[in-house]
Design the sequence.
């Protein structure tokens, strides 16, 4: 489950990343689209400026600039670097201004590259068509200015009137109207696209947030499970092993689960029981006479030391009775050691029946008790 949630979260984050890229690309294409429409508007304004300046001054460079603007717009001349920035002001006002030439691409082809809608394309084409109509008026003004019309006489005043006439301004306004209409369409479309993309991104973010909380919860549950099922039982085993080193062998494995750790705990419990029994047996053997099954010299020494310490602290009197079997060597020599052993066992049994529970009975030597 944890892996599945993590996979879904990664997929959701990837979708968010793709959505952000889509938004960035959309904003960039919107910027390019506005730049393209702005270039159409700016080229129309620059053509007007060059045409009017030419008929006012008669300087041929403005006529050349005019035709160069048209050539760049039609893709017949290379587009200068940074053409979308301030260019013609520098060309008109600076003698040594130079900009690196770029590639040749017409305004129409640039429109097709940006994948405008059919309506947007038709509006831009209509704006360009009207700009071409305005160019025809400007070309007619040039012909009048140069005297190459049917009248064959230059008429600068008529040329200027034509470029400042109501008809000229009407045609100019009709171009700007279409460009403004394009801007409105572009803004509405991109705004809707951005809103949809933003809504989708917010949904992805909400899903990512929910998945993050879910993943955190699963991690917490996994941590608690790991701690309760693995860490704590291992700690208990460690504490119990440490207790075994101190001589404590009582171990309860009933609360362990029936898993690998439970199997280890059960094995330790069995081993602890066996070790405890072995140690108890060793203690018994080390303190018990192997023949008579009563306390041996080691146990008697401990009992005597205990009684002496008790006497020194509480001044409680105690007594020691020594019992020795007479002529025991003769019995062994005459009847064999096995008979002597039976006599020792029988005497030990009689003494055991006679002493109190608070007394300490033991074999002190070979034939003494």
Sequence:
């Amino acid at each position: 489950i944890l892996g599945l949630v993590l996979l879904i979260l990664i997929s959701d984050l990837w979708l968010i990343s793709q959505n952000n890229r889509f938004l960035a690309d959309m904003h960039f294409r919107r910027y390019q689209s506005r730049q393209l429409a702005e270039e159409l508007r700016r080229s129309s304004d620059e053509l007007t400026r060059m045409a009017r300046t030419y008929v006012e001054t008669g300087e041929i460079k403005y006529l050349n600039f005019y035709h160069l603007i048209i050539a760049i717009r039609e893709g017949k001349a290379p587009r200068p670097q940074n053409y979308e920035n301030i260019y013609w002001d520098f060309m008109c006002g600076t003698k040594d201004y130079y900009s690196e030439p770029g590639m040749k691409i017409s305004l129409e082809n640039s429109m097709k590259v940006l994948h405008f809608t059919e309506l947007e394309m038709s509006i831009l084409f209509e704006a360009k068509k009207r700009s071409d109509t305005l160019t025809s008026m400007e070309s007619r003004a040039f012909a009048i200015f140069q005297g190459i019309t049917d009248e064959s006489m230059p008429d600068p005043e008529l040329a200027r009137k034509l470029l400042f006439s109501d008809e000229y301004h009407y045609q100019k306004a009709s171009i700007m109207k279409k460009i403004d209409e394009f801007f409105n369409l572009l803004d509405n479309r991109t705004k809707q696209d951005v809103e949809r993309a933003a809504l989708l991104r917010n949904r992805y973010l909400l899903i990512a947030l929910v998945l993050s909380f879910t993943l955190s919860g699963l991690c917490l549950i996994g941590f608690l499970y790991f701690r309760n099922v693995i860490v704590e039982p291992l700690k208990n085993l460690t504490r119990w092993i440490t207790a075994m080193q101190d001589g404590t062998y009582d171990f309860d494995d009933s609360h362990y689960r029936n898993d690998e750790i439970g199997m280890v705990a059960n094995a330790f419990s069995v081993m602890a029981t066996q070790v405890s029994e072995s140690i108890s047996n060793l203690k018994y053997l080390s303190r018990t006479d192997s023949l008579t099954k009563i306390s041996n010299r080691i146990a008697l020494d401990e009992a005597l030391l205990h009684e002496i310490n008790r006497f020194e602290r509480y001044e409680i009197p105690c007594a020691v009775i020594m019992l020795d079997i007479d002529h025991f060597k003769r019995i062994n020599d005459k009847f064999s050691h096995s008979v002597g052993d039976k006599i020792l066992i029988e005497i030990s049994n009689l003494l055991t029946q006679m002493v109190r529970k608070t007394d300490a009975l033991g074999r002190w030597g070979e034939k003494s008790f």
Summary: The chain has a mean pLDDT of 81. Residues 1-214 form one domain.
